[in-house]
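Annex B. Sample input.
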Amino acid sequence: MHIQNLRSWKPKIGVLPSLQYLCRSFSLWSMKKDSDLESALSRNRRWIVNNQIKNIILRYPNGLVPVKYLQKKFKNLDLQGKALNWIRKYPCCFEVFLQHDEYYCCLTKRMMALVEEEESAKEMQEPVLVQRLAKLLMMSLNHRLNVVKLNELKRNYGLPDDYLISIVPKYSDLFQVVNYSGRKSSMEIELISWNSDWAVSAVEASACVQGVEPRFSCSLPSTWVKSLERFCEFNSTPYISPYLDPKGLVVGSWEMEKRTVGLVHELLSLSLWKKASILKLGHFSREFTLPDKLNILLLKHPGIFYVSNKYQIYTVLLREGYNGSVLIDKDPLVVVKDKFGELMQEGLHEFNRRHHAENLEKKKKKGMLLGRMEKIKDNNSEISDPDDDQGDKLGGLFDPEERKRFYKVLFDDDVP
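Annex B, continued. Sample output.
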């Protein structure tokens, strides 16, 4: 409906409130843009795709993949075009060669070195990953999490793809896999041992170091007067740990809100990039007792969280985790992944430079060819045609008037 029609439209009784609610529901997603945090949220699509291609190659026997096989996987990667053209853009990451009239792809030596570095970082970080998984279970209701749901966030927390095999059985004193309903989709990881030393949130740990009461930190400019006032009012109430059992809290009370804000803060603090998809967090509404409209709660606290809809994906980011657009505390796994991004970018620059040089060479050859053709054309125009000169001497039969007179003489018997 156009704006002019809306102005002239007279709603019936009971229609206007629903329109106001609709407009309000749209405004609930809005938040003043922060250029630095928007830059931090920039999701490198190329990096994600190449990381998935890397995993496909590593899973393939001998790490040698036919390009035809990658082409079939391109649909799953939401890509169009030829796989061969894509992987050739990143010569520092992928190596392509022809064997028996078929193209194959494998990882370069520099790429394999990064893969080994990543595996080494995972081994060194295993105690941290175990603690991270335990803390997630400690915050959940009944200390259990659905495996299918957890798989959606496993990379956010640095968990390996095979954590159910490589980590959970190894720490049988902490975790066990259960399935109380018997359905395949109902398999859960359960915490069987509570560690009180781990039941300390990032807010509480920071307060302990500073020797103050646990409070949320605010990262808003002084011009946000009303938001700062609301934050100070919210922060004046006692902090409630996300590891506290929420069963005794009343839904809708300030205590429940305080606990929920603290829980989301802790979930983001435990993640590698201090950010998460709001949609994926919403899948844990029952396990973490999150409200149905989590986005509304997050937008009420802009001093703590930043909500963005970049790439039409609603993401929440922990403001205190960033200095401008730079992640403050980088996990060793993040450092390795950054190196992969740099290697990928180096290969792309090399490809673009080579491609640019080839295009220049083509243009030069094309220019030389055109120059030769022009020269030949000029030389031909300078050479006189003896037939043309002779034609002029024969009386100009190509002239229209002469041609008319010629036919008249030829067919008209009355002409002398």
